[in-house]
Specification:
This protein is α/β, with parallel strands linked by helices. It contains 16 helices and eight strands.
Amino acid sequence: MARRGNLFAHAASSSDARACYQQKKEAIFMNLSFHLPTQIHLEEHAVRNHPEAFRLGRHALLVTGRSSAKKNGSQDDVLAVLQEDGIEASLFDEVASNPDIPTCYRGAEYAKKVGADFIIAIGGGSPMDAGKTIALLAAAPRARGDLFRAPYEAALPIVAIPTTSGTGSEVTPYAILSDDEERTKRSIASPLLFPRTALLDPRYQVQLPRRATVNTALDALSHNVESMLSKRRTPLSSAIAASGVQAFQTACPHLIEDCLTREDRASLLYASLVGGIAIAQTATNIVHALGYSLTYFRHIDHGRANALTLGAYLRFLERRCPGATAPVAAAADLPLGKLAGEVAALLGTREEFTPEELRSYVPYARASANSHGAIVDPSEAELLALYEKSLL
């Protein structure tokens, strides 16, 4: 408990930091809201242990990618539990990395065709985000031009089964899709997108390739860090996110050495889970705004795209708001320079960019609502500087 208390002592250690945080010490607990309607089970054999989670209807649509859910055993576990309960199941496995809008419309049409009355999303962030969007469109169809316009009227119930340790989508009200018309990634946000239940089993990640393991772990780290440095953070969300940074750091040495234990896998899955819980309250900010173009235009994995600018982001916020990043360093139990060094070690050789490329990405980053969510609102020149310091 003393350690967690210190996180907030650091946050209030300077007048500059207090000004950036825009919080009065005497009112720190006054205007706090927290919404998480998802039932969470993180344990081995979670799917088999909780058949009640699937009793949401008579016909489930499983939304997955092409092969991972089949290879890691999660799909077979789900089908076995559904069969035991007499629940019909259909499979939509067309979800690729960074799902696009047409895929979700096809999935929704298929859900209606087979008469699915709930969704089971199995996989990383892509199947879960696609599954959420399919749940919306199958329950309340809407035109393509209205897809990102709230409010939303209804959604089919969702069960989420993450098989990577990065996105945290199993506990968020967001779905992130590639929008080819806007040439970027865009977010649907609605409380209807919270899954009813999240079933997390570290066993499904034992055979996850190193590249996917590293990139998703870096995504989880960025979620927790950005949440702690969000203008919407609260003591509760920050304490949750700090525990995610600690969990990431517990596994990080073995992650760098590529010798993860089952306990490390569980730690990374926890870091992903609580990162999702944290950003469900605060949203993400500058790092994600910068990362979307790296993913859309250069097809860089989302978690890696975030991590490429994470070190520069921390240095920028510390310079603009002295003391603000101290809670992150305290949670990692490392100086920020060493934390950034670990991230750099996991990233390895960085992609090459031209100055012209990076300048072309700035308007997309600035247009993203995420770019305004941190404790400091960067200018276009500062966004460009973050790109350049990270990627040139």
